[in-house]
Amino acid sequence: MPSTYISLCNQVARRLNEVEIVDGDFSSCTGVQAVIKDAVKAAVAKLNQMEFEWPFNAAEETDVLVVGQEEYVWPTAYKIADWNSFQIQADATLGSRFSGLTFIERDEYYEKYRDIDHTAGTTGITVPRFVFPAHGNGYGVSPSPDKAYSLKFRYFMNFSDITNFDDVTRIPESYDTVLVDGALYHLYLFKSNMEAAQAAFIAYEQGVKNLQSLYINNYSSVRDTRISF
Hints:
The chain is of the alpha+beta class. 35% of the residues lie in helices and 16% in strands.
């Protein structure tokens, strides 16, 4: 279970031998307590920015396609999509079955399929078979859907900005120490204690590397994707 914003702040306060923050004062605290809040927020943001695919930021979305519409916007807090996960859902009423979509580049869509989709207009063509990056904040499907098919896909979220005392970070509680070290780095810089800041930064970097080893650089096998001619 991830820790709350105030819990992380108070862990940092105890490390500095500062007064802890109480729930009722969280939104209006000043002085060093306000700096602690900013430092924790910065540590959380920095860790989330270090990898696109932290598993604790994984999410799944189901969109209902609109007849005759090819392009759709990403969900809130979207960061990066798993393009291999796009799948039309089975629906006996619509006559659809589970079918994965094949990824194509946007230029290929423009060249081969866009004119056909646009010619079909608001009636659509059939069940989509391809997915591509839209021109902007979203994705596109082709052929243009002729029914309101359900499309499910997986993606990774950007970090959520923590604001309230009970907001959570999504990062497992067992790695609070990494966030605390990151926050201490910013606080020691604020206090112009460069030696302590450097030590905290080294501890923070090592903690992030441990997280990467555990969650990112962990492969049971490697697949050869070269094409044989």
